[in-house]
Every structure is written in structure tokens, then in C-alpha cells.
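Model it.
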Amino acid sequence: MKRLADFRLQLGKRQYVPIVIGGMGVDISARGLALEAARLGGIGHISDAMLPTVVDKEQGTKFVRNKLQRYKFNAANSDKAVVQFDLADVAEATRLHVGKTMEAKRGEGAIFINCMEKLTMNNPAGTLTARLNAAMDAGIEGITLSAGLHLGTFSLIESHPRFRDVNLGIIVSSARALKLFLKKSSRTGRLPDYVIVEGPLAGGHLGFGMDWAEYDLKSIVQEVLLFLEEAGLDIPVIPAGGIFSGSEGVEHLQSGCAAIQVATRFTITPECGLPPDVKQSYLKAEPEDIVVNMISPTGYPLRMLRDSPAIGSGARPNCEAYGYLLDRNGNCAYIDAYNAAVAASPDSAHVRVMDKTCLCTQFRRFKVWTCGHNASRLKETALRLVDGSYALPSAEHVFDDYRFSIDYAVHPPLADGVDDPDARSRPAKVS
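Modeled.
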């Protein structure tokens, strides 16, 4: 049986362990998690979601406070068109976060950043350009474009000195989406360095409708591989969504893929940014606890744990401080949903908004418990303690379990955190 360790991902002149840890915002794929992936020879993502907020928390800056002071006069107004991000602040927050990460990097792997098009910030093109350019300025090794078609994104950054040498990739959920992206980006004379094909079992926002269960990752991947072959394009393809073991990853690589992207199994590691009690909720989840709903203001379905505190929360819109999902006209679907809930219950002290949630507020507070379809299997990967809680496996253990396991093996850590390299190569059927 082959292992993922028997393969290498080639990007440009460099080779990597073919394991990519996906970018989970807001600061769920924290710096420490990405650094571990790089140290171990793979690729780790940080997320650029709400970086002014993240940097305020970790480095003591005051981006959020200053923005709130600037626009607090508008707090009671439902029209948020006037609320704009200072592009210099957006760029500086990105440089600070990326720069500190790159300074700490060790190992032969790489650090990429996940950049969401749906993070429109009341100025889609302006804020996206500022974020991408600042990440390249700060030395990021790769940029993965996500949450949108990104049809014009390459043209926004083609004048940057690093446009030709930084690794640029795109997340798609169909061959059709990839075709559109390549057609629109072709005028820059620049192909993506890799394509991540995200299937319907992924965590967080999905590139499908509520008919997601009618789709299959392997089928979509094969459609993408066939399209690239027929077009004469040699672009590495990286499947993502629902890949829970190394042997499942090997199947993809043997069918023509270059690497795998994984995320959910790393949510319970100490290096992940989620609070410890939330990690225990992930570990205790059963299949019926994992739902796909439409509470995201982005319009995309969202996979999460059904007891996520964000569901039904009636947080007051705080766009003057945050406002990361405001469109170019200053609108957000959550504002409309909140106002409708208030109008329906004007005398209620605690408004419940069931059909949407304020992602800015709730992601910042780690109240949106996004996860992959197979999150209920996480308990197979950790040791249960006497008190009923679970010991958290290290990011290195999970990474190496993907890298070295064979057959259908998923190995929880050994007692007292001791790892046994020999155990990684022993088949261990999971019940």
C-alpha cells in the first residue's frame, strides 16, 4: 500500500509533502497551525478574514476602535453605505499578520493565505486589491483565492512585482467555474499554479446549493482533470472536502491529483485557534449534529454544528466597527433579517434572528462552529479521558497520520501524548 509520504507536490521549482491545511477564518487556522504544516514540509494556510480584528487581538493595534470612532454617528442607521474601510489600515493589518507569520516560519514547507472574494467590505475591488498586494509585500509564499469566482482578481494585482513568482491558486467546485476563471484571467498571461477542487462535504461555506448531496468530489475532480488534459494545461489539482484519512488521500493522488487539502481534523489540535471547549464540542458531535443551513449572509450554504451559538442569535449589526460583508452599496442580508425580526417583536428585549446570522460578530467570538461532513468521526482520532473529555492530538500527529497511515487507518495519539512512529504504518481498522 502506498502512503501520502510516497508522493510529492511540485509547485514551480519546489517540492512539498502533498498535504495542504485549508484556510479557516476567522483565525481558526491560526498562525501556529500553518507554521506546523510548513515545518513538517507541507503547506499551511492562514486566513485573511477580518485581519484588522485579528491583529488588534494579537498585536494590540486599534484598527477596529478607530473605525468605530470614525463612523459611530451612523450606528443607528440601517443604511451603511457611508461606512468604509481605510485601505491603508486594511493593507497594514495584512502586512502585520503575514509578516509576523513569515518571520516565524521554519522548515521546508510553505505558508499560503486564503483570500475570500465574498469579504466585500463595502469596496470589493479596493479592499481585495489592498489585501492581496499587502500579503505579497509581506512575503507570503502563496495565495489561494476562495469564496467567489474571482474573475477579475488576477487583473487587480498583475502590476505587483511578485505577480509572476508568488504561487496563485483558485478554489472551484466545478469544471465550469474553472473554465470561466481561466477565460477571464487569460489576458494577464498568467495561469494559476494550482487548482483546489472543493467538494460538497467540505466545512464552512459550500460552492453548491442546498442540493449539495447530489454532487460527489471524485466525479468533480475527474471532470476538472479531463478538462485540463483536453485543454493541454498542466496545472496541479488538489481535492478538498471530506478526505479523512491518508489512504483516502492516496486514492486521489493515484487518480491524477497532486495533493490533498484537509482541515476538519486539525480543528481539534492545540494549534488551532478555536477555544478548548469548542474543540470538545467537535469531538462529541454525532452525525445528526452536523447541518447545512442558509444562515450566512453571503448566500452560500454553510456546514456547521447545529448547536452553534450563532444560530438564532440576534446580535445587533455592528458594521461601524466591522462590516466585512457589506456589499458595494453598503448592504448586508443580516441587517435586513435583523430589522425584520425587530419589527416582528418590537417589545422583545432579546431578538432572535433565525434565517441569517451576523458572521462578523459571531466568527470573531468563535460562535460559528463550522466543520466538515465527517466531523462526527473526530472522536476516532483522540483519546477519551476518564472525565469524558478528549485529549487533543497535536497538529504534528494529525499531519503524520495523514502522511504515513496505510489501509483505512486513523490513529489516535498514544497515552500521555507519546507518539510511536511504527504505529503510523500499522493497519488499524476503524469501527
